[in-house]
Amino acid sequence: MHSTLVFLFAFLAAAVNAHFQLQYPPPRGVFVEDDEPTFCDGYLTAVSNRSEFPLSGGFFSLNSEHPKWTAGVLISTLPDPKSFNNFSQVNSFFQIQGEGAFCIPLDFSKSNVTSLSTGQNVTIQIVFDGGDGQLYQCADLTLSNSFTIPTNVSCTNATSTATSSGATSTSTGAASTPKPSSLGVREYAMSSLAIPFTLIGAVLGLAAL
Ligand SMILES: *[C@@H]1O[C@H](CO)[C@@H](O)[C@H](O)[C@H]1NC(C)=O
Ligand SMILES: *[C@@H]1O[C@H](CO)[C@@H](O)[C@H](O)[C@H]1NC(C)=O
Ligand SMILES: *[C@@H]1O[C@H](CO)[C@@H](O)[C@H](O)[C@H]1NC(C)=O
Ligand SMILES: *[C@@H]1O[C@H](CO)[C@@H](O)[C@H](O)[C@H]1NC(C)=O
Ligand SMILES: *[C@@H]1O[C@H](CO)[C@@H](O)[C@H](O)[C@H]1NC(C)=O
Ligand SMILES: *[C@@H]1O[C@H](CO)[C@@H](O)[C@H](O)[C@H]1NC(C)=O
Ligand SMILES: [Cu+2]
């Protein structure tokens, strides 16, 4: 029984400790692990010092602490979006295997989001699911058709086993029919319920011992 308890606690610790960190473009604020399951990692207001970001040929990079994950990008053109309803999906979600740094193309000019223009302020929200529910980080941007991401910004992949860029989400199922203008973010948000249910299940399991 003791080893069962140790296993359960180890499982719970692993489940809440492993998330992701957006590296580029810079997120709204320093990563707050406990808030990552919530809108914009808990940063509810757009920053005033936005990052320039290219309309075409851009990328975003992140550090994954999960070995297998699904991610995608949402965008809002509001100056200070407050709700998932204010975002739409940029491209299909994709699934990657591997922990560590990953760099994913983010080319708005080739996306399903139309009528973005140079000088426009937007907010992107990265949605990431590594198996412990949807996680979110936001970056506030000013789009530019003349800006190029500096070459000193790291853009590498930790593994070459990364697969199926452009594939739809398989772990959530919610992204299987991407609708750029009326996305299913509510559905994504729903599965964050998996965390409380997992915790409740573990507590019941402990009680049963
Ligand atoms: C974009 O955001 C910046 C910083 O918040 C602001 O100064 C600027 O006026 C905004 N530009 C547009 C076109 O809204
Ligand atoms: C914006 O300002 C904050 C506070 O000074 C800083 O930590 C952050 O790096 C800046 N972000 C950008 C994109 O320059
Ligand atoms: C932003 O989201 C809020 C909350 O759902 C909604 O009331 C509002 O109409 C949205 N604004 C726009 C411009 O979509
Ligand atoms: C744009 O949307 C269509 C229809 O939903 C989809 O088939 C296509 O893959 C999308 N394009 C990208 C780049 O995600
Ligand atoms: C990258 O280079 C730019 C100038 O092109 C500089 O402002 C920035 O501080 C550099 N960043 C790093 C992380 O070295
Ligand atoms: C990293 O992997 C993704 C997914 O396969 C791919 O789209 C991207 O181009 C790769 N980036 C680099 C720098 O190799
Ligand atoms: Cu996690």
Observed structural traits:
209 residues; alpha+beta; six-stranded mixed beta sheet; 3 helices; globular; disordered N terminus; disordered C terminus; binds 2-acetamido-2-deoxy-beta-D-glucopyranose; binds copper (II) ion; signal; glycoprotein; lipoprotein; BIM1-like_dom; cell membrane
Architecture blueprint of SSEs:
Layout: H1 2-17, E1 20-24, E2 51-54, E3 58-64, E4 68-76, E5 88-89, E6 94-97, E7 100-106, E8 121-129, E9 134-144, H2 185-190, H3 194-208
Parallel strand pairs: 2-9
Antiparallel strand pairs: 1-3, 3-7, 4-5, 4-6, 4-8, 8-9
One 2-acetamido-2-deoxy-beta-D-glucopyranose (NAG) binds at residues 78, 83, 85-86.
Signal peptide: 1-18
Protein name: Copper acquisition factor BIM1-like domain-containing protein
Main location: membrane
Structure description:
With 209 residues, this protein is an alpha+beta fold. It has a single domain (18-184), classed as Coagulation Factor XIII, Chain A, domain 1, CATH 2.70.50. 18% of the residues lie in helices and 28% in strands. It has helices at residues 2-17, 185-190, 194-208, and strands at residues 20-24, 51-54, 58-64, 68-76, 88-89, 94-97, 100-106, 121-129, 134-144. Strands 2, 4, 5, 6, 8 and 9 form a 6-stranded mixed beta sheet that branches. It has a 3-stranded antiparallel beta sheet with strand order 1-3-7, with no helix packed on it. Bound molecules: 2-acetamido-2-deoxy-beta-D-glucopyranose (NAG) (6 copies) and copper (II) ion. Residues 160-177 have a biased composition (Low complexity). Residues 1-18 form the signal peptide. It is found in: Cell membrane. Its main location: membrane.
